[in-house]
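Journal club prep, notes for RB
We'll compare a predicted complex against what the paper describes. Inputs for the nicotinamide-adenine-dinucleotide case:
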Amino acid sequence: MDHNRIDTSTDAIGASSLLTKNMSTTSGLVIPCKAAVAWEAGKPLVIEKVEVAPPQAMEVRIKVKYTSLCHTDLYFWEAKGQTPLFPRIFGHEAAGIVESVGEGVTDLQVGDHVLPVFTGECGECAHCKSEESNMCDLLRIDTERGVMHSDGKSRFSINGTPINHFVGTSTFSEYTVIHSGCLAKLNPLAPMDKVCVLSCGISTGLGATLNVAKPKKGSTVAVFGLGAVGLAAAEGARIAGASRIIGIDLNPNRFEEAKKFGITEFVNPKDYDRPVQQVIAEMTNGGVDRSIECTGNINAMISSFECVHDGWGVAVLVGVPTKDAVFMTKPINFLNERTLKGTFFGNYKPRTDLPSVVDMYMNKKLELDKFITHRVPFSDINKAFDLMVKGEGLRCIISMED
Ligand code: NAD
Ligand code: ZN
Ligand code: ZN
């Protein structure tokens, strides 16, 4: 493939305006660029020169502008409890610009601003056709896959050695190849260094409240777990006009940061000698109207359900539990007209729905800036990992060009 290589100093995007639609100077060529490669579980990433092959049918190659780090990257990088897949390029929360498109891609063109999403929307399967589901059969998240759908190959290599993709996005690279069904088109006026956080955790929490729990104006909402996902659920409750938002976390350090998110009361289950669901029922005259669980802890899941009011209460599970966790509650809790739901990516269909979430930010309805607590240049990507390991801050934006 050496004859196809181009010089990295070529600015593929900058030159695109001179070229015809869907062509760039680098179109069809292998692009050598920098990527942060994870060679081994838990070891610092290494910035390497990788070669990024051109997009194949229904694929798009993008220039990543900003990416952020999410717990899912950390979890699979640590590779505790799953089959390790290395070397690998992690990263799935990001925003970028289309550099070139593969055969059959008609809805995106060179220069479009996009949000990559770890789960996709093929538009053809039963899930995509259902108004009720966002769990596309073809492009649903698959953390064990390290290659592209079309030919089972990786688009990344170093001296001919393939490097695995991660959840179809691999955004810790200056250029990456993504299935077109996993790219939401962005309003070109939206600041990419802010809206990149909408490509995973923030949309998940926000959608859990707005699309699934659906609190009415004036209602009381409990949020279990005050990480980025839980705080996004609280942001959804604020937008929906909840009058009380009760934040529950075992870590009191989370409460200070959470004060910016419209949470009106805080409960630490460790401060009580009775179950937290009982404490919440006492605070709310019988239970909350809506409850959103964003911890991944099975006990919090059960408490989040048992703290909703009988007759109308709805609890929504967002956290990802351990494989062996079992949810146990008395069936009478259901007979007393409580509802338990779960959600994946906040029930948003990535391509169809994310543009309207971006508009909510552009219209100042949704506040994103408060989620961004740190920024680092790409060369310092390991600092973003250190911050997350220490549990500091919410989102760290990694700028690809600094
Ligand atoms: P995080 O680790 O930053 O936050 C979780 C918080 O929960 C922490 O502050 C922790 O102290 C708290 N917590 C843990 N156990 C608790 C308990 N028993 N009671 C009260 N609080 C407790 O994580 P995050 O990035 O905000 O993600 C939250 C969860 O959402 C994770 O499980 C993640 O895997 C999941 N998630 C789900 C989806 C989906 O589509 N369903 C998407 C993204 C993330
Ligand atoms: Zn994520
Ligand atoms: Zn589909």
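Talking point for the session: The longest helix spans residues 201-213.
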